[in-house]
Each structure stands twice: as structure tokens, then as C-alpha cells.
Amino acid sequence: MKVLVANLGSTSFKYRLFDMTDETVLARGGVERIGSPKSRCFVEVARQRTEAEVLAPDHAAAVRLCLQQLTDHGCLRDPGELSAIGFKAVHAQGISGVQRVDERVLAAMEAYNDVAPAHNPPYVQAMRLLHEQLPDIPLIAAFETAFHATIAPADRLYAVPWEWAERYGIQRWGFHGASHRYIAERAAQRLGDPEARIISCHLGGSSSLCAIRAGQSLANSLGFSPQSGLPHNNRVGDFDVFALPALLRATGRSLEQVLDDLAQRSGLLGLSGLSNDLRDLEQASARGNSRAHLALEVFAASVRHYLGAYLVRLNGADAIVFTGGIGENSALLRAMICDQLDWFGIALDAEKNRTAQGEVPIHADASRVAIWIMPTNEELIVARQAQEWLNRRGAG
After folding, report:
1. How far apart are CA 291 and CA 274, in angstroms?
2. Can you spell out the DSSP letters for 4-66?
3. Residue from 369, 360, 297, 350 nearest 328 by CA
4. Is the pTM of this model over 0.90?
5. Is the per-residue pLDDT at 59 higher than 90?
6. Which of 86, 112, 203, 233 could cross-link to 327 by cystine, CB 3.0-4.6 Å?
7. CATH code of the domain occupying 193-378
8. 343-359: per-residue pLDDT in tens?
9. Cβ pair 378, 82 in contact under 8 A
10. Which residues make beta-bridge pairs with 31?
């Protein structure tokens, strides 16, 4: 059984092709800078990587290029060899879990285009194209919200009129479900404890913390939309909605324009006025740029806020796990987040943290709480979910 997993960003289309008999990655690749005249196409097969500049004006063209890559490199005889194409879908109105993509699912995703503006439109576009070109191959959407279905009402509901949640689904849905699910499984394996209390810190272009016990999500810092929770690379994070009328009056801008600012020009970019890339901010901070340093401090303070809340929610922790592009690669942010937490039995080993690569523990010998770096594998989780969906229906 071969399953292709598609991971879409606002200007990227990346994929992994799995042979699910042993979960081998047969190929990985994608197209970056979609919409740019200098789009870049790459593919890795058997540890060999090739790259080329291409013209990919939209996600539809990127999908066609990726399918061509797989046949050109002999990974597929033709696209019809695929058992399924899985998507790490984000959000849809009234829909969660693992779903076969059809018009009902696409309409539900389109209804939330303004709730997940960086994610839903390109996903819907790619799904429609693939459905048209490969109508016999199941397209499987594994929604990020599914892992958080175990969150109790006390941790899920906003203090708003009851019918808002009951009728309109206004609640904390939580996201990054594939990443947190992977960390829940992998950390429990490494700790040798299926009941482990884990705080998963997915820190990257978008970020969230998740409180996990016995493999289940008990709380997630993201709320109704992916714009909430921690500050993101260019998205706001937590924000008082009653600031909106004041902003509208002061700026003369429309609600749509202000929302676009909150979704596109806020977060680390808005705070620093420099970049939405943490690597740029670390370098600028080291050179004395005060706003870049402030952006790092605000980000770390927000992570620590949720970390403290989840230590309370879990009555302690067995492990804190850093994952995602920032979590895996920024020794500085990990140090800032773990600073002065000795009262909780959390102690980072400075040298292990500085030199860490790959999946490694970075806690001090005296730390009661394990601290790990674990590269996540969202695509593998989606491939497994697609396989389970197929097996339940006797396919493949």
C-alpha cells in the first residue's frame, strides 16, 4: 500500500510517499515559493536529492509537478498506483476526525476560509485538482482538531453565551494534532511509560503547547482558530477582541483590513518590525536590536505562561518535549523557556542544550522532569490515519 501525504503552506507544497507495509519513506519532495517566478522544485529518492527552478504559479501547478516527479524517478508507475492521498487538514465547520474528501468536506473547509486563511484556501484548491485528475484515488483529510477531542468542557469552552458553542461551534478546538499525537506516542515509548504526563511544545512558524496524559490531549494553547494562543511567525496569538473597535476608530481601517494585519503582519514580525524568521531575530538580537530581543522575550514568556498552566493541569510533568523548527533548533529559546524552573524540578543541562542534534534528552542529571528534543513526524501520523481509514473500509 502506497500513501502520498501532502503538506501545504501558503507558498509551498511538500509531500512524502510512504510504503505502508513497513512505513518506509520512498520519496520526499515539493515545490517552494509558489507564485514566485523563481519557484523551486526538489525531490529526494534513496538519499539522492535533485533541485531545479520551475514555474509554479499556484498550488495546482505544484501538485502536477510533484506527481510528475514521482513517476519520473520511478517511485510510481503512474499516480493510479496510490492507495490514498492524505492531507494534514486544519479546520472545517462542523467536521473533524478523519474524512474522505468530498463536496461536503470541501464546503465545510471553505466555510472556514476566513478562520484559517493561510491553510484552507490552498488545501481546497489542491484537493479539488487532485479529485478531478485522480477521481478513483481516495483523498483523506486528517483534521488537526481530532487529537483534541478528549479535552474536557472545562478546558474547551469559552465563557460566552451557551448557544454560541452549542449551535455555532465557538470553542477551543486546538490544532497541531498530528504533531502532538506523534510526540505523545514517541515520548511514551522513550520514557517507557504509557501513562506519562507530557507537555509537548510544538514551536515553529506556528506554535502551540499541549498537555498530554496517557496519550490523550487534555489542553491545547490554540483556540477556535490557528491565529490564537502563542505568538506565531506573523500571526497574533492571544488578543483581546475589545481592542478591535478602538483600532477601527484610530486607524480608519475596515474590520477585514485589521484582521488581515492580525493574520499576516503580527506575531514575531509585528513585534520586531524586522522578520518573521526566528533565526533572523536571534542574529539581530545578538547585534543589539532591542525590538528583535523583545520579540524573543514575548514569545518565551507566552510559552512559559502555558507551560505553567499545564504543569498545574497535569499535576506536574514527566517530560517536556520541544519539537518543530524552533523547538528543535533554537538552543537560545529552549534556555529562555526553561530558565529558573528549578522549583518545579525542571533543570536544563546548558551544554547538552547547546550541542543537541536530533532526538536527544537535554535535562540535567538532577532534573526530576525529563526534557527532550524530538523531531516530529506529522506526515507519518497522517499516513497511518489514511491507512486505518482504508482498512476500516476493506480497501487497499
Report:
1. 8
2. EEEEEETTEEEEEEEETTTTEEEEEEEEESTTSTTEEEEEEETTEEEEEEE---SHHHHHHHH
3. 360
4. yes
5. no
6. 203
7. 3.30.420.40
8. 999 999 999 999 999 99
9. no
10. 13, 41
